[in-house]
Task: structure prediction
Amino acid sequence: MTIRSRLQRAHDLVRAEWRHLTTFNPSTRRWHMAFSAALASGLPLMVGAWFGHLEYGLISSIGGLAFLYLPSTPMSHRMVWLMACAFGVAASYALGLMTHFLPLARVGVLALIAILVTMVCRFYRVGPPGSLFFVMAAAIGAYTPGTIEEIPLRVGLLTMGALLASLIAFVYSLQVLRLQPADPAPPLQAPTFDFVVFDAVVIGAFVGLALAIAQALQLDRPYWVPVSCLAVIQGVSLRAVWNRQFQRVLGTAFGMLLAWWLLSLPLDPWRIALLVIVLVFVIESLVVRHYGLAVIFITPLTILLAEAATLGHAPLAELIESRFIDTVLGCVVGLVGGICLHSPRFRDVLGGALRRRVPRRPSR
Result:
């Protein structure tokens, strides 16, 4: 290969990456959805600010993320679907809280949660964000300090946030179904072993590996590494995995600058609640159009949801640097996992071994 051909190939590669980076997807999402999602996450913080317990509002706001699983189907289907997802988020968080007192089991339990949740999401064809917020709730719970006696309180707070999200979703649905007809509930497709079982096992294994690496490196906030890994590895193709990895790292870099500026402002509980509402509204307006731009605002949002109760206890620069390292490490592990997941040779070797371990149905 000549030098000229290599330069041309590099030029074509750069142009292709730039095209993927600057492509905006069309969207029919109405502003009502973004506003309702912002209320689902922001109202619990306002209640917490009113009663002087911002830490309680932060837990409930995680439950409010269940709103993002609301489908565009008829009312009877969408509400049952949403409440099932709300229960799943609460159950994942409860399991995560329990593993806080079993440090040696954290990696295995989080990997198992990722496997089971991914299997369920793929069996029922749950769209984006897929298993992300279930695993995120479990990971945050696993690294939330506290006592065993506080577990029921915290699970109850998150469940209340999820119930509030369901109520907001009901009111939102009454309005939006007047403006546009609902999509028919999609029929369940026949599940395949590779799509439901094999992919879930590989994804869960790399989520556990990401957490194990984070713990081995003794990172201060290791829970964000498996979450970043899962966000990347969920791509439907290797191209999608690479795009998410690249956009997430780049978006996080710019998001750190935004987070640095926002967190340096004089923030009280009420300002934090309003800031979360604005950030969620912007994110839900952008994420369906351009993932990388949305990540810029996702970065300060996740820092607020996870760290708002302890802001000021550690230097801001340390917090920002820690989050960026966590994200990059998780993206690298997720990219490696995506390469394995979409490798035909890897699937043949590991898939065959996994199939042999599946119990056979008894013959009639």
